[in-house]
Structures are given as structure tokens and as C-alpha cells.
Design a protein that fits this description.
The complex is a heterodimer. Helices cover 0% and strands 52% of the residues of chain A. Chain A is an all-beta fold. In chain A, strands 2, 5, 6, 10, 11 and 12 form a 6-stranded mixed β-sheet that branches. In chain A, a hairpin with a 7-residue loop joins strand 10 and strand 11. Chain A is globular, with a radius of gyration of 14 Å. The mean pLDDT of chain A is 93. In chain B, strands 2, 4, 5, 6, 9, 10 and 11 form a 7-stranded mixed β-sheet that branches. Chain B is mainly beta. Chain B starts with a strand and ends with a strand. Classes of the chains: A mainly beta, B mainly beta. Chains A and B meet through strand 5, strand 6, strand 10 and strand 11 of A and strand 4, strand 5 and strand 9 of B.
Chain lengths: 115, 118
């Protein structure tokens, strides 16, 4: 079974600063996908960034980047130059490479960007 | 733009009622999913479907059933609502069927239905 752990229920960051959200996972799979999803207050969940486990290079999307450590089963999200619109719940999620396309989610981290 | 819509944003039902939650997607996606979201528990998969009339149980299917008669519509049914089913319910869809799994496509989520069972 796959499990995803987010050990930081809540975090805050000053506007324009950098923050890192942690995620670890447990799996016996060798190939898989990892995701960070963002759920703003009262708004729909959207994808922030995706990492393929067989790619060594860390994924980046503008101000968002990940630190993927496969051996340690760690997948942290770094948000640079934090903006007020980054205030949201952030969920880390795992998807197996083969089989059903369902996601296994962590419990989420509530991030507040302080002006 | 992919659009996933859910029939209600807020719903209040009584214990024992049969409840239908509807989800519609407009991008011809094969996969559709129902999750429930609870504080401190994240999102947990209830059921998913990778084709019309096909369904598979997720992690917490007890007390729920689903129906997928048309590709664009996936319904979640609470046969006899109970107070422990008070939750936020999220529907999602993604492209490609089960046999073509492995492409890591993202899931597109609806706005959610906050269900209260009293």
C-alpha cells in the first residue's frame, strides 16, 4: 500500500519570502508519479507541479520547484517569492506508474502568506 | 479549459435519506473519481470509474455506491445517509483509461459538495 505523509499541518510565510513544504511517502514501486496540488479557500483544487520518479531532474514551474529525493522517499515543495494568492491548502499526492490512475493523498499543509 | 461541475455546493440531508451527488465533466475523460475530504485526513478515494458502466472500489467504499451510465457523468449515491458521512465530497476526472495507465495525467477537480447529514 502507498502512504503519503505531510508532517506540517500549518505553515506561514511572509510575502516575498521562500517557504518549503515537506512530504514523504512509502511505496515498493520503482516507477511512479508525485504531485503537489493546491486548494485555495473556497476554490477548486488545481495542480501545482508534477514529478516523474524516473527523471532525476527536479521539476520546476515558475516560482514553484521540488526537491525530489528518491532514495529517501522525500518530495518537498519550495515556493519562492511567496504571494498572497499562494495562501491555500497544499496536498502532496502519489500515483502508481501502472494500474489504476488514482491518487494517494497526504493530509495537507495549510499555508498562510502574511502581508 | 477542462470543466468539472458538481450539482450542489452545499447540501443538507437527514439521517436515513438517499442522497445523490452528481458530477459532470466536459473533456471526454475516461477516468472519473469520487473523494471525500476531511480535516486532518486529506482526500480519501471512495470509488472510481475508468469507463462507462465500469467501477472500482477505492479505500472507503462502505456506505456508498456509484453509477456511470454516460461517459461525462459520474454519480455518487449514499444509500442511507448517516451523520458520519458529513463531509466535503470532491469529484475529479482525468484522461486515458486503465489499460493505458502510466502517463501520470493530472486529475481535474470539481468545486466540491459540502454535505451535512443531520
Amino acid at each position: 500500500a502507498q502512504t503519503v505523509t505531510q508532517s506540517q499541518p500549518e505553515m506561514s510565510v511572509q510575502e516575498a519570502e521562500t517557504v518549503t513544504l515537506s512530504c514523504t511517502y512509502d511505496t515498493s514501486e520503482n516507477n511512479y508519479y508525485l504531485f503537489w496540488y493546491k486548494q485555495p479557500p473556497s476554490r477548486q483544487m488545481i495542480l501545482v507541479i508534477r514529478q516523474e520518479a524516473y527523471k532525476q531532474q527536479n521539476a520546476t514551474e515558475n516560482r514553484f520547484s521540488v526537491n525530489f529525493q528518491k532514495a529517501a522517499k522525500s518530495f518537498s515543495l519550495k515556493i519562492s517569492d511567496s504571494q498572497l494568492g499562494d495562501t491555500a491548502m497544499y496536498f502532496c499526492a502519489f500515483m502508481k506508474h501502472t494500474g489504476a490512475n488514482n491518487l494517494f493523498f497526504g493530509t495537507g499543509t495549510r499555508l498562510t502568506v502574511i502581508p | 479549459d477542462v470543466k468539472v461541475t458538481q450539482s450542489s455546493r452545499y447540501l443538507v440531508k437527514r439521517t436515513g435519506e438517499k442522497v445523490f451527488l452528481e458530477c459532470v465533466q466536459d473533456m471526454d475523460h475516461e477516468n472519473m473519481f469520487w473523494y471525500r475530504q476531511d480535516p486532518g485526513l486529506g482526500l480519501r478515494l471512495i470509488y472510481f470509474s475508468y469507463d462507462v458502466k465500469m467501477k472500482e472500489k477505492g479505500d472507503i467504499p462502505e456506505g456508498y455506491s456509484v453509477s456511470r451510465e454516460k461517459k461525462e457523468r459520474f454519480s455518487l449515491i449514499l444509500e442511507s445517509a448517516s451523520t458520519n458521512q458529513t463531509s466535503m465530497y470532491l469529484c475529479a476526472s482525468s484522461p486515458l483509461g486503465r489499460l493505458l495507465a502510466g502517463t501520470g495525467y493530472e486529475q481535474y477537480f470539481g468545486p466540491g459538495t459540502r454535505l451535512t447529514v443531520t
